Amino acid sequence: MSETTWYLETTDPAELRPGREPEGPVRFTRAQVPSPELSRFLYETVGRDYRWFDRSPWTDQEWRDRVERPGVETWVLYDRGTPAGYAELEAQDGGAVEIVYFGLMPGFLGRGLGGHMLTETVRRAWDLAERWPGREATRRVWLHTCSLDGEHALANYEARGLRLYRETVADQATGGQVDMSPK
To answer: In angstroms, rounded to a whole number, what is the distance separating the alpha carbons of residues 121 and 119?
Structure first.
């Protein structure tokens, strides 16, 4: 079995193509009080069906260290007061901001919320430095997704204006990886 990973980026906030507005009342709110418990809940619930296991062995202290790290933000999409999805942003050197995690809770898939949440996530990535004094202004927003993620993930990212810049294919059986990016 192989797994394809796509790396996407945007280098200009004007490239953002907003998703449609959701039909019901939703809020996209930053979790301003670092909460390892909230971040773990969101990560485990959203990622359960997509094999997000890299943080599963983390201790409480590792979760705390992550959410308290300057430049790391957790944003939650609420649908009528209920968490519907989340995004984790991380400021990196050189003005880069990675969308480290992004996804909807299982009960909120297929309701047209993903495009709106991604629009808001990319906007928050572009203005992240405004919330973190001393941070370099954002010059690049990037993420990666893979063939194990939601079936509409790649299309949503591209529809919002993110461009593919790298593609790799890993063979699960051998552990080998091939870079499929254009040379």
So the answer is: 5
Question: E-strand spans in the chain?
Answer: 2-10, 26-30, 72-79, 82-92, 96-104, 140-146, 163-171, 177-179
CA dihedral 122, 126, 131, 134 (to 10 degrees): 140
Task: Return d(Cα 66, Cα 73) in angstroms, integer.
Answer: 10
What is the pTM assigned to this prediction?
0.92
Burial of 42 (0-12, 13-18, 19+ CB in 10 A): buried
| Polymer length of the chain | 183
Tokens of residue 82, six digits = 């209920």
Q: Quick one: tokens of 83? A: 């968490």
Other Cβ atoms closer than 10 A to 113: 22
Q: What is the mean pLDDT of each run of 10 residues along the chain (183 residues)?
A: 91 97 93 96 93 92 96 97 97 97 93 95 98 95 89 92 94 71 63
SS3 113: helix
Give the C-alpha separation, 101 to 128, whole Å: 16
Instruction: Report the pLDDT value the prediction gives residue 183, as an integer from 0 to 100.
Output: 55
Q: What is the 3-state secondary structure (H, E, C) of 69-112?
A: CCCEEEEEEEECCEEEEEEEEEEEHHHEEEEEEEEECHHHCCCC
